[in-house]
Amino acid sequence: xxxxxxxxxxxxxxxxxxxxxxxxxxxxxxxxxxxxxxxxxxxxxxxxxxxxxxxxxxxxxxxxxxxxxxxxxxxxxxxxxxxxxxxxxxxxxxxxxxxxxxxxxxxxxxxxxxxxxxxxxxxxxxxxxxxxxxxxxxxxxxxxxxxxxxxxxxxxxx
Length: 158
Fold this sequence. Notes:
Layout: H1 2-11, E1 20-24, H2 36-43, H3 49-65, H4 77-95, E2 100-104, E3 144-146, E4 149-151, E5 154-156
Parallel strand pairs: 1-2
Antiparallel strand pairs: 2-5, 3-4
Helix pairs in contact: 1-4, 3-4
């Protein structure tokens, strides 16, 4: 999350007035499995980047001590960092209303990281992500396989 955040903050001043940032998220970013307190902190509509950095420092300390579960965190760092990427994306979108800043999930694809268990689309190249890139309303879509159809989500400030 730190490198993604640094990259976004570096490029934001360089973007044109109708610039866009799309961060890649994951179904692993689901907030299920966290304590209610941590879920609420991730969902806080007034979260700031320093708030998020504090959360990630707390997670890192818990991970270093092997106390993630006891402290309300998931035990897989990948999901924690993707949840943090989503929270960071929401903060940046709120702080930069003139830009389109969003996160999307491409789905579980056939890669070494996915243990070669990802599923390609039924007809390669024929699926589309249900995104409204310039919608005036923020949209939240979920992702996952449902009866051989992949559904994905997008959060956007536009």
